[in-house]
Amino acid sequence: KVDYIQTDAAINPGNSGGPLIDVESGKVVGINAAIRAHMEGTSFAIPINRVRDIMHDLSEGKEIHHGYLGLGLATCTPDWARQNNANSNNNSGKIPEVYGAIVFKVYPKTPAEQGGLKENDIILMIGSQKVRSADDARKLIDLAPVGENVPITIMRNGNTKVLSVKPVDLSSRLKEIRREKQRQQQAERQRFQELGPFRSLLQ
Predict the structure, then answer these.
(1) Given this model, what pLDDT does residue 140 score?
(2) DSSP per-residue letters across 71-92
(3) DSSP alpha helices (H): ranges in 86-194?
(4) Cys-Cys with 170: which of 66, 110, 125, 155 at CB 3.0–4.6 Å?
(5) Is 142 in a helix, a strand, or coil?
(6) Residue 104 to residue 199: CA distance in whole angstroms
(7) What is residue 9's predicted lDDT score, i.e. its pLDDT?
(8) How far, in Å, are 31, 33, 42 from residue 38 at the CA level?
């Protein structure tokens, strides 16, 4: 996930890349990037702090990578954990009463699955940085070096352990997903064509 600022600034074809300005301070707070289809008046900007992190690499013509692990995350706090643990309908076991990011989904064939992460793990640290929320984890994953092993400290069943996970580039992962979807669609069209004269029976 890449963090964006949601705004109502109008973005039309050709003017993405312009500054998003705070009208009270006159400071640039982001770079306008995209709109959301079917959501009129809603647009998104890249936060200026993220732009500062990458602008020198961009000026040198370097490609910008975004780390991807393949996780669904939610914020875990002691109060939230206590509330869930008190729920008699909770069958997933006792949640540690700590700050971190709880894993509620591990997607198949991803670095997270290959690295041994499991549902209900609590991520406490990524690299040397503490994680106190899902947003913390997403930002650190986004900035993680692609193709390099990253230590992730988790709590599982009351025990702390360190896993080594190798992030891939988000854009490369999205391209793989699109290619796989295209292959499936092509296979489906081919199968339908091979039915020949029997197609009318399926309608």
Answers:
(1) 93
(2) EEEEEE-HHHHHHHHT-TT--S
(3) 111-114, 134-143, 170-194
(4) 66
(5) helix
(6) 42
(7) 79
(8) 22, 16, 9
